[in-house]
Amino acid sequence: MILAYHRINPWYPGDALSVSPEMFERQIKFLLEKGFEPVSLYQYTDEKERIKKKFCVTFDDGFVDNFIFAFPVLKKYGIKATIFITAHFVGTDRLHRNYTDREKDRCLRWKEVQEMLRANIDFGSHSLRHPDLTTLDRKQAWDEIFESKKFIQKNTGRKVDFFCYPYGRQNKKIREMVKNAGYLGAVVTNWKDKPDRYALPRIGVYGHNSFFIFRMKLCLQRIRGR
Ligand SMILES: [Zn+2]
Predict the structure, then answer these.
(1) Least buried of 44, 52, 80, 108, by fewest C-beta within 10 Å?
(2) How far apart are the CA of 50 and the centre of ligand 1, in A?
(3) Is-contact 66 19, C-beta < 8 A?
(4) Tell me, what's the pLDDT at 101?
(5) 2-223: which CATH number, 3.40.50.880, 1.10.10.10, 3.20.20.370, 3.40.50.720?
(6) Cα–Cα dist 45/146, whole Å
(7) Neighbours of ion ligand 1 (CB under 5 A)
């Protein structure tokens, strides 16, 4: 199963996208205690990989709190994770929708990305500017998908092989483009159709989810065989 987080911080207890560091650690510990093996998205999508009980941790948007609060937990437990960054937001003052604090709500800087890369954290693309790709014309959508890949690769010196659709918004055409741009796979949340490499279903974990709800979500995903 693939878990989808956004923010990990103690700053916004009422915010749906912010999970507290304590809850995040409790969730990770629970999965490990239940015998789930932490794997990267590469291992997860590798058909030769035979690990039955495995989980991936992913984060969307690339908020600075991933570095401050999630990264220490990931290192402590040896968890591989993928952070989907909005390429043109990294190292800038640009803020994601609904957030206004320049310190707490800023995106990662490249030197923070570099430090996490050295500790086995992978970086995927969440487009250049976080638009709803289904509303763009073909050329604009292609740039968001392909140019973001090139841009992140240039800044990290690593291949960028996974994509995450902004707002989870996509369609067949967009999924085709992601494939043609050379990505190995792409992640979604709330996926009702048949999963495939360009629609890898994830469990969205939110700030208002109690630990009980988290466990229920895991159970449901297991039943669905994901
Ligand atoms: Zn996003």
Answers:
(1) 52
(2) 31
(3) no
(4) 95
(5) 3.20.20.370
(6) 21
(7) 60-61
